[in-house]
Amino acid sequence: MAEVSTVAVQAPEVRQTKPHFEVLDGLRGLAAVGVVTFHFMEMVIWNYSKLWIGHGFLAVDFFFCLSGFVMGYAYDDRLEKMGLWTFLKARLIRLHPLVVLGTVLGLIALYANPFGGTPGYGPGKVALMFAASLLLIPYGVMKERSQNLFSLNAPAWSLFWEYVANVVFGIALYRIKRGLLVVLTIIAAVLLCWAGYRAGNLSGGWSARNFWDGGARVAFSFMAGLLVYRMGWRLRTRLGFGALSVLLVLALAMPYAKGGWIREAAVIIVYFPLLIALGAGAKVSPRVERLCRFSGDLSYPLYMTHYSIVWIWGDFAEKHQLATRGMAPEVLCGTVIMVAFASLVMVAYDKPVRAYLRARW
After folding, report:
1. For the CA atoms of 291, 292, 298, 300, what is the dihedral angle to 10 degrees?
2. pTM for this model (two decimals)
3. Residue extents of the structural domains in the chain
4. Which sign does the torsion angle of CA 164, 166, 170, 174 carry?
5. DSSP SS3 for 115
6. Can you list the alpha helix ranges (DSSP code H) found in the chain?
7. With the C-alpha atoms ordered 292, 229, 86, 301, is the resulting torsion angle positive or negative?
8. How far apart are alpha carbons 171 and 132 in whole angstroms?
9. Distance between CA 183 and CA 308 in Å, rounded?
10. What is residue 82's three-state secondary structure?
11. Which sign does the torsion angle of CA 17, 23, 26, 30 carry?
């Protein structure tokens, strides 16, 4: 139930005055595609060891790490002047329009699903779920949806923790020195390992049953990304976007096995911060740069709008018993459709709404 998203985004006003990390943009988009692919497969086959992208959920930890890097880069040197309230308004404008749209799409899918039957909830309960999702208040009550914290749009769980991380950053993290940040990051790594040991994996945070695992995941990854920025770890490399994309896909496609939390922790604690540092130091051609920018812009709309279709797909797949055969054509088709839909959302809704809110606020 993975982004960015908790998805890391660079403030638009910063883009005009600071250099841009194009490869990180591209990797963010690729991670979002990985999440969508993982969710299309997960909805039919819950045994992750049978999925070729069985660790697709780790893309969320990559998003959190990238978010910490970007928050430090975009706001470390100016948050004191702009103030907490202005910072939080900027984050709301960037993130919340798609929280609203994702919730609305989830409500439509709940009633318009031709394969799922009539919802077993009255108008009052659905209204409460809708309001909680709009306000990002965890409310995991739908048993048939595994008690997702946000029943109408499951991926919003990572946005809840992204908001928590942003508030903590705006209040305290941007002020602390590197030495204290190192200590806090090490403590967070220990807590992350404990969460993995206790649960047997590091896929939690999305449900009322594993709520605090999400806190452990965002605490380490966000601070690790911030630490990468503060330490100046931008590793110059000849590896371009293509090679770094392969390295990211290898982490998401790592074979899943029960008790494999140690490997997952190693990826989160060591591999992803290294990948961020490599991406920050990589250079690309102008043509690839345009692709990376588009990929980065698309990542958040894709992440926040795909799950309503995934629920319908799951009921369709169950009705037609697709789990008993290969699903590659259907998954590929579904992912392509969601990328196209997210492109439309980005152009027709996300960018215009954010521009309007920035002008008004």
Report:
1. 170
2. 0.92
3. 12-360
4. positive
5. coil
6. 12-15, 22-42, 59-75, 79-82, 84-112, 123-134, 156-168, 178-199, 211-230, 241-252, 261-266, 272-281, 286-305, 307-319, 328-345, 351-360
7. positive
8. 25
9. 40
10. helix
11. negative
- Model confidence pLDDT, tens digit, residues 208-253: 999 999 999 999 999 999 999 999 999 999 899 999 999 999 999 9
Pick from 143, 13, 28: nearest CA to 81: 13
Map tokens 């029943």 to a residue.
Answer: 151
Tokens matching residue 237: 């490399």
Residues with Cβ within 8 Å of 240's Cβ and at least 6 positions away in sequence, in order, are: 23, 282, 283, 284, 288
DSSP readout, 225-254?
HHHHHHTT-----S--HHHHHHHHHHHHTS
Residue 5 tokens, joined = 């998203």
Handedness of CA 112, 345, 54, 211 (dihedral sign): negative
Paired tokens of 348: 């027709």
Neighbours of 69 (CB within 10 A): 28
So what's the pLDDT on residue 152? Answer: 93
Q: For 49-73, how does the pLDDT look when each residue is reduced to its tens digit (9 = 90+)?
A: 888 899 999 999 999 999 999 999 9
What Rg value do the Cα atoms of the chain yield, rounded?
A: 19
**Polymer length in residues for the chain:** 361
> 280 and 21 in contact (C-beta within 8 Å)?
yes
Three-point CA angle 346, 348, 352, nearest 5°: 85
Distance between CA atoms of 177 and 184, rounded to whole angstroms? 11
In three-state secondary structure terms, 336 is: helix
Nearest to 346 by CA among 313, 297, 308, 306: 297
